[in-house]
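Morning - fe (ii) ion inputs below, output right after.
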Amino acid sequence: MIIAQISDTHIALGAPDADQRLADLDLTIAAINELAPLPDAIVHTGDIAHNGRHEEYALAAVALAKARTPVYVLAGNKDDRANLRAAFIRGGYLTPDFDFVQYAVDRYPVRLIALDTQSFGNKGGFCRRRIEHLTRLIQADTTRPIAVFTHHPPFLVTEGPDPFHFENRGAMSMLSNVLGRSRRVVAIFSGHVHRAASGDVDGIPAMVMTATATTLRHGQYPAALRSLPVYQVHRFDSCWGFATETRIASRGSAVRF
Ligand SMILES: [Fe+2]
């Protein structure tokens, strides 16, 4: 199974780099479309829109609809749950009976569980209701491995100004305990930090990918890469688990990989 991950597109209206952010998303989807084999799924780990506006989601939805493989979206701290839900409800995977953007995708050999770590401010949160919902999602299948996707990384990212991306340690450790106890979660993939990082959550390998929006990336990139977005490809092998590759999105990058 192959999953492409994109994140933090921050589609905005009126920002000085608004056109670039949209171009970065377009180019990334075009590059993923050229991969052979095509990934089984694309997961956007949140901060789809910068101001949570309908019009921003409309632009993002048009760009994501060009993907040749199913796309699943998460809510980041910049997203508006109601507007996000309205823009992507037709995908059929957003649970109508739960007000958080939290769901499982059961159509693949690896189950995908998308978590909603949105809270009131920039940092992440996780409450009892989401924990109970996550526990039910995990228990719904006892045979397949699970890849978990979050916007805020539930582990310390020691590069950057602040290693801690949750409001409080209690919420983060409550979440990591549930994930660790499951014994079925084999990887955790996140966004939010706008720079690449890796770590672990209760022994589970965990990674953060940088922002798809090139103007919002942190960290150092060679000059030739400055206007080229990157995305991640996570390949699952039943013996070895996930192997992750960071790929550069550019026109005409059609490759067997
Ligand atoms: Fe972001």
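Note: Residues 8, 10, 47, 76, 78, 192, 194 surround fe (ii) ion (CB under 6 Å).

O.
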